[in-house]
Design brief:
196 residues; 22% strand; globular
Length: 196
Amino acid sequence: MLRKARIAVFVSGSGTNLQALIDSDEIKSGELCLVVSNKADAYALKRAEAAGIRGEVLPSKGTEFDRRALELLESNNIDIVVLAGFLRVLGKEFVDRYENRVINIHPALIPSFCGKGMYGLKVHEAVLERGVRITGATVHYVNEAADGGEIILQRAVEVLPDDTPLTLQRRVMEEAEWKLLPLATELVCKMYLEDK
Ligand code: GAR
């Protein structure tokens, strides 16, 4: 292979999905080059540092994040952006500039339990509240609508009778998220290189 797609991962928190990308041997068409956080204390930054990946913190306020992130992506020649527990909505200019090159992992089966305000543990709380028996995770392209872009991969996970939001979150991560995100990242990098 002549070249690999250069990947930036956007994070806001603990970064277990970032760790899954770092540890995966699925990603052959891309390389992790940059980790961008909107939170200075995100543990994900420590994971990046331990893996020898450049980490950057950008201010979360207003349109400042998007503008500075675009500059960073361009100066680092980034091809693909992976949102891995990134709890901020990207604006139109950003999404248009990276059309079909930004993907996100969501901890439910879209179009259920998604959209504005549905993130992290809140998703699993809502799943348990509603009493559904099957949940899961989705990787999708990012467009302007919250969790509204085209679906790339999904995987179902069973909800067990004595689940708490935390036990369910953990099972969704282990059985779905940490497997799906590397697979989808490879898929998107491969398609990007083939189209070039
Ligand atoms: C993950 O469960 C991810 O799917 C979710 O936040 C968690 C971050 O965990 N993302 C969303 O809810 C986006 N709507 P991590 O920092 O350990 O990867």
